[in-house]
Amino acid sequence: MSWWVVVEEQRGSERNWSLSEQFSFADRETAETEALRLAREYEPAYPWSPKSRKVLRGDGGYLVVVEGRTSTFHFRLSVLEEL
After folding, report:
1. Residues 33-65: pLDDT tens digits?
2. Distance from the Cα of residue 10 to its chain's centroid
3. Of the N and C termini of the chain, which has fewer Cβ atoms inside 10 Å?
4. Alpha-carbon distance 66 to 45, whole Å?
5. What domain of life is recorded for the organism (predicted)?
């Protein structure tokens, strides 16, 4: 059994959701720790010039709002168990 951290973010001019990254871990604790680190440090595709970020925690992951110079984008990180 393994645990995954999956990054989904808005891409393209129409801001469609897409799977950007996925990481596998042996246990939930490690996956949770890595998800928090990524919520704080992951460099999303957009915006190009990030100025600030807000990290929101919910059941099973994080929603991160990144404020850029001219636009705001967000991405989500989910901690998931492989069955």
Report:
1. 999 999 999 988 888 788 999 999 999 899 999
2. 10
3. C
4. 11
5. Bacteria
Does the pLDDT at position 13 exceed 80? no
Instruction: Write down the residue that tokens 């990030």 correspond to.
Output: 50
**pLDDT reported for residue 14:** 67
Handedness of CA 44, 45, 50, 53 (dihedral sign): negative
Residue with tokens 């949770």: 32
Q: Are strands 61-68 and 3-11 parallel, antiparallel or unpaired?
A: unpaired
This prediction has a pTM of 0.87
| Whole-angstrom distance, CA of residue 67 vs CA of residue 53 | 6
Residue 73, both tokens: 């984008």
Tokens representing residue 21 in the block: 């990254």
